[in-house]
Amino acid sequence: MGHNRKVIYLAGFLFSIPVALTSYINSSFLEIYVDKNYIGIIYVIASVITILGLLKMPKILTRLGNRSTILLSYSFILLSFILLAFGNNIFIIIPAFILYFISTNFIIASLDIFVEDFSKSSHIGSFRGFYLMIINFAWIVAQLISGSIINKSSFSGIYLLAAGFIILAGIIFFLFLRDFKDPEYKKVSILKTLKIFLHNKHISKIYFSNLILQFFYAWMIIYTPIYLHEYIGFGWDKIGIIFSIMLLPFIVLDFPLGKLSDRIGEKKMLLLGFSIIALSVLVIPLITEPIFWIWALILFTTRIGAATIEVMNESYFFKIVKEEYANEISFFRNAPSISYIIAPLLAVSILFLIPSFKYLFFVLSAVLLVGFFNVLRLRDVK
Asked: Tens digits of per-residue pLDDT, 304-323?
C-alpha cells in the first residue's frame, strides 16, 4: 500500500509539471489566433465536451479499468502537446487545445481514484493534503522555469517540454500498478446522480463551494496572465516568478490543513478561506503600477484563501463519498469544466459591455463572497 501511494505521488508530480507549465500561458498562446476578448469561447467549447466525456467515465472505467483509461488519456495529451508545439494555424491549434483540455480532466479524475483507493478512510484529510502539497510543488517548479523558456524559445518550447514530462508520467503507469484492482464502479444514472447532489445537503453545498473555487481558478488562469502582461506591463520572466511566489501557500498549507481538517472539521476553515480570497481579489484592480513585490504579495494572499478552500473541499467531499462511486466523483470533478463554461461566458459578457479587464476582478470578488454565504449553512461531518 505504501509503495503504491509513493508511485501515485510521483505520477501526480510528473503529470502536474506539464499542466502547470501550460495552464497560465494557454490564453496568451491562443490570443495569437483569437481576439483576447473571445478566448473564453474556446474554453467553453472544450468544457462542454469534457463534461459530456466525464459523464461517460464510469462506463469507460468499467470496460477498460482505471489504469488503461489513464494510459489512453496520457497518449491523447501527448499528441495534443505535439500539435500545439508544431501547429501553425487555427484549424490545428484549437482542436489540439480541446484535446489537451479533455485529457487533462480525465487524468485528474483517474488519479483521484488511485489516491482514494490507497488512502485509509480515517486519515483522508492527511493523505489528500499531502498529495495536494506534492501537486502544488510541481506548479511552483513549473512557474519558475516557464518565463525563461518562453523568452528563449517562445510557446513551442513550453509545449515540447510538457510533452517530455507527459512521457515520463506515462512510463510510471506503464511499469507500475499492474496489480491494481479496480473497485466496482457504481452505475448510477445522470438524473439519479443529480438527485443525490441536490437532496444531500452535505454534498450539494460542498459541490457549490468547489464550483466557486474552480470558477476562481478558471477566471484567474485565463485572464490574469493577459492582465499582467498587456495591461500592467510585466515581462514573462517576472510573471513566472510572481506566479511561483503566488503558489507557495499550496506547499506550506496543504498538508497541515489536511491534518487540521481531520481534527476540527472543515467549516471554520472554509469561512476563513473565502474571507481571505474575496478581500484580496478585490484589491487587484486597485493597483495599476508594475511593482513586483506588491503584485507578488496580493496574488500570494489570494492563494492562501484558495489553498484553504481547496483542502477543505477535498477532505469534506471524500469523507462522505468513496472511490467506487465513480458517478459522484466524476460529477464533483466536473466542477472545473462547468466553471470553464460559466466564467468565460460571464467574462465575455462583461468585456462586451465594459471593455476593461479591471472590472473582471470586482465581479470575481462578488462571486467569491457568495461562496462565503454558502459555507455558512454547511455542517461538519466526522
From this structure: 999 999 888 888 887 777 65
What's the rounded Cα separation, in Å, for the pair 365 and 279? 7
Q: Is 226 part of a structural domain of the chain? A: yes
pLDDT exceeds cutoff 90 at 343 = yes
Structure confidence at residue 382 as a pLDDT band (50, 70, 90)? low
Q: How many CB atoms lie within 10 A of CB 227?
A: 18
Range of the domain at 167: 2-375
d(CA 283, CA 346) in angstroms, rounded, equals 20
Instruction: Report pLDDT for 175.
Output: 85
Residues 358, 369: Cα–Cα separation, whole Å: 18
**pLDDT band at residue 381 under the 50/70/90 scheme:** low
For the chain, what is the domain count? 1
Is 381 among the domain residues?
no
Report, as an integer, the average pLDDT of 335-345: 88
User: What's 320's domain CATH number?
Assistant: 1.20.1250.20
